[in-house]
Structure to design on (273 residues):
């Protein structure tokens, strides 16, 4: 059995539970800009991390119709004030319809705020991501957890997370011995690993340490499964052919034995006469 074969069963076991939000899906609201002049990804490393990680999260939550995952879109968090917005690299909202896609996310219209936000560091955003945005996301927007990660492998690792305590204070999430952070909100471990192409990828794991695969890994596993299935089919065909040959030899041997017995019987009859 492959590492990801039982993911569907475990996903049902570990999936977070949350109520439906009070609002309704809102694609856009007139007067609130939904784009700017900034590129989606600041660097190639940044882009690879966003694409890979968002794909993992989307496939993990694909069967839950009340999980919306946004990628580099505006999140407006105060009705009537177009200056009160953030644009996270990736954010996850619980309790709202997965579809339709939104040009921007409006917290008051949807009746929900992002539960978890991820920012991937670049030279132009790092200071802001690890500074002002901590309070902005956790206190102003009201997210439950906020994580930052350095995806560029040639730079020192930096993976940190913060959450709001029950009293409303900001507390930094303490890493484990392998520098992983546990997201209580997502009920997932988050760990990074360096790749040969110099991308330091952040990866989600289930609480029992089962990894959530990347699209590339799933393709490789499907290909490996196909190769094994073809090899097994060929082995079975060869075994069936060998069995048919053995049965044919046995029938020939039995026929030859019957012939010899008949000749022997005829010889004995002739002798007796």
């Amino acid at each position: 059995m492959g590492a990801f074969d039982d993911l569907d069963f475990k996903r049902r076991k570990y999936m977070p539970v949350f109520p439906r939000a009070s609002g309704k899906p809102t694609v856009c609201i007139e007067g609130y800009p939904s784009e700017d002049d900034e590129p989606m990804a600041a660097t190639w490393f940044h882009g690879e991390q966003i694409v890979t990680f968002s794909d993992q999260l989307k496939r993990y939550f694909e069967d839950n119709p009340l999980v919306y995952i946004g990628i580099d879109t505006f999140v407006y968090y105060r009705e009537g004030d177009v200056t009160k917005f953030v644009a996270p690299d990736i954010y996850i909202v619980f309790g709202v319809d997965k579809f339709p896609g939104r040009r921007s996310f409006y917290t008051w219209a949807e009746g929900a705020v992002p539960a978890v936000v991820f920012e991937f560091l670049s030279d132009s955003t790092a200071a802001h991501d690890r500074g002002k945005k901590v309070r902005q996301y956790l206190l102003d927007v009201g997210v439950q957890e906020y994580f930052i990660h350095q995806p560029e492998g040639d730079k020192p690792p930096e993976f940190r997370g913060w959450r709001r305590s029950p009293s409303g204070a900001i507390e930094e999430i303490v890493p484990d011995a392998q520098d992983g952070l546990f997201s209580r909100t997502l009920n997932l471990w988050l760990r990074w690993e360096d790749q040969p192409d110099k991308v330091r990828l952040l990866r989600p794991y289930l609480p029992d340490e089962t990894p959530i695969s990347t699209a590339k890994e799933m393709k490789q596993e499907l290909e490996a499964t196909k190769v094994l299935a073809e090899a097994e089919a060929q082995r079975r065909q060869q075994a069936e052919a060998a069995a048919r040959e053995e049965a044919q030899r046995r029938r020939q041997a039995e026929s030859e034995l019957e012939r010899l017995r008949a000749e022997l019987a005829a010889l004995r009859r002739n002798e007796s006469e």
